[in-house]
Design a protein that fits this description.
93 residues; mainly alpha; two-stranded antiparallel sheet; 4 helices; elongated
Length: 93
């Protein structure tokens, strides 16, 4: 996705400054056809990333709510996991 955005900027003849820190060299000269392709590619990749994030979050919730396994708990940092285990141990008779 970053490359398609960079290519879009280059084909648009718009100078790219990386986070405002320094000028990034253009990948191509002004090219309306390449600009359209890069724009479409950039937009498509955006939606692919959105779909992957939603799929990933949905799978994590499915594991937690439907399968009721420890997948989400294993994603917690070790310290938080130990605190949660200690609290669960206190609740047991």
């Amino acid at each position: 996705m970053p490359l398609s955005g960079w290519l879009y900027n280059s084909a648009s003849n718009f100078p790219l400054r990386w986070f405002g820190l320094f000028q990034v060299p253009a990948l191509s000269g002004r090219d309306p056809e390449l600009k359209a392709i890069a724009h479409d590619t950039h937009g498509t990749l955006f939606w692919v990333i959105v779909a992957l994030v939603l799929l990933h979050a949905g799978a994590a919730l499915w594991h937690h709510l439907v399968r009721r396994d420890e997948t989400l708990d294993r994603m917690l940092p070790a310290r938080l996991r130990r605190v949660k285990q200690a609290l669960q141990a206190e609740e047991r008779p």
